[in-house]
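Homework help thread (please don't just give me the answer)

Our assignment gives two proteins as sequence + structure token strings and asks us to describe the second one. The first is just a warm-up. Here they are:
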Amino acid sequence: MLNSASARAHTNIALAKYWGKRDEELIIPMNSSLSLTLDHFYTDTQVTFDDSLTADFFELDNRILPATKLTPFLDLVRQKAGIKTFAAVKSFNHVPNQAGLASSASAYAALAAAASKAAGLELTRPELSRLARRGSGSASRSIYGGFVEWQEGHDDLTSVAVPIEEETDWKIGMLAIILNAGVKKIASRAGMQHVVKTSPYYPAWVKESQADIDALKQAIANRDFTQLGEISESNALRMHALNLAARPPFSYFEASTIRAITMIEELRAQGVSCYYTMDAGPNVKVLCQEEDLPTIKAYLAPAFGTENLLFARPGQGVKFLEGDLHG
């Protein structure tokens, strides 16, 4: 057996965030979430099932790495396909790893698509979403483009992402301020577990999450950018408040994070409609309309450098690629 397939998936940034699991093994979240898929950040992955291999093989950005993390996920694919063949996985990641820019979302969405096809499976997009979720919860959303909701569900079948508006004509996007592209000090999985166990605010977070999603859907339908931004910003701050209230507390913020937030608030005070959000990492993402992008970049560039301001528009869902990957 020597079957190969390649796929590309984009990252997504949650506007209403997922932070905590109900089931660690199946990765069933405590609450639903809503995201925007981005075109600028993506992962290309090629998977080849090869009978000559004696173990799974993993190459990322032309560097050979242990396949330890990928093997349990590939085992799920092998189980579904009824095969035992080991796989060679080759990936090129066009997004900083583990820095709060959703690299795991694009990585596992691309892996789910490429591995399932290479194994001879023809999965529907909901099936791909469920499979990607088993690698990284946010990867369930990267199967689709545009605005996407990951419905919390209660088991493997019902916890799945669904598209809200894949082909959006709304001229909005995210400006990522890359403050630190290094590995974050606390992995998302560990941070979530600690918060669920120790943060006294956690029950309120779960209770309020659905209200945020309902309001975001209304904002999307009405093209109400102010409502979209205000809810996204407050949702992010409440997520990080959970971390500060944990025992012991922790934070993904750095001094530059606070500086970026302050500058976004200054821009808004000057009449520029823009809002910030942050995930598990120090980097700040600015939700804005394309018409305001030149003003925002000009204001932020002296502080952070033009090369560290990366704009992304709404992106596409996962797609299959032809031929071998070359980076």
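The one we have to describe:
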Amino acid sequence: MDEGMELKGCVCRIKSCAGQLLSMEEDLVTDLDDDSWDLVWRDLRLKATFLYIDLSRVISRSENDERRKALTLLANKFFYCTDEMIYLKIQRTTLILQISYRGTCQVCTY
């Protein structure tokens, strides 16, 4: 497969997943029953997994050292916020989850 085409696919999936994550606010900040939350959690983890793989590919193939460092910092920040959101939702801390979600959205829109 052409390396340029693969990177374009990775970037396209990253943008798509970021957009989908930004649209999940209602699901994350409302009080869902356990079954509904389980589905949202699985969807969030699936998106995070694809993002991890695609970001890893984009970072590893980046030729610019500064860009690689910036993308790595951004990816680490995103995954930290995502893990924090999942932990907070499990703990049923809705107000702090809303704040954490906003932080994750800021990372996604960067």
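TA reply:
I won't write it for you, but here's a hint about the kind of observation we're looking for: The chain has a mean pLDDT of 77.
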